[in-house]
């Protein structure tokens, strides 16, 4: 997990998109003086904020890294590009892979490659069940994906175990 966070932080540090839509890749953080020199302030105003896209959750790591890789490709090849189009293309590709089910089917076809087992998860769930706790899973993923992932992670028949938990048995 730390490697992912380090990679994401590096990617975010390297990607600079200014208020005019120009993008550059940097291998260093901007100092406060550089920020004020480039943007005139350290604060983002409402006019600038309406054009910014937030990358704020765990799922944005891959998106931020892919955007940085795309920008770096164009910079290295000395090709002109529009940062807005790179963002839109990356975002559309991610949305397509997610909504079409390609991502779910790809992960389930080779779960050892994408999912990390936690040997204590099943024990933790059993302790909760024994203590009479009722659990639910809130997700926007399809059932077949969650079921397949849980079967891989727990190596048990998840359906019967989840029915025991849901029924409070």
TrEMBL record:
The keyword Metal-binding applies. The keyword Hydrolase applies. It comes from the Eukaryota. Keywords: Hydrolase, Magnesium, Metal-binding. GO terms for molecular function: 5'-nucleotidase activity; metal ion binding. Pfam families: 5_nucleotid (PF05761). Belongs to the 5'(3')-deoxyribonucleotidase family. This is 5'-nucleotidase domain-containing protein DDB_G0275467. The gene is LOC107917081.
């Amino acid at each position: 997990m730390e490697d992912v966070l380090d990679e994401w932080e590096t990617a975010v540090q390297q990607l600079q998109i200014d208020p005019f839509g120009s993008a550059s890749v940097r291998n260093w953080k901007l100092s406060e003086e550089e920020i004020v020199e480039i943007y005139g302030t350290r604060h983002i105003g409402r006019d600038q904020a309406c054009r910014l896209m937030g990358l704020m959750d765990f799922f944005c790591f891959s998106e931020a890294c892919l955007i940085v890789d795309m920008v770096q490709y164009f910079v290295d090849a000395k090709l002109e590009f529009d940062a807005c189009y790179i963002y839109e293309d990356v975002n559309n590709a991610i949305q397509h892979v997610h909504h079409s089910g390609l991502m779910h089917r790809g992960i389930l076809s080779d779960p050892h490659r994408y999912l990390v087992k936690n040997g204590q998860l099943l024990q933790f769930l059993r302790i909760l069940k024994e203590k009479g706790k009722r659990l639910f899973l809130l997700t926007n993923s399809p059932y077949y994906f969650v079921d397949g992932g849980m079967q891989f992670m727990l190596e048990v028949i998840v359906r019967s175990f989840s029915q025991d938990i849901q029924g409070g048995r």
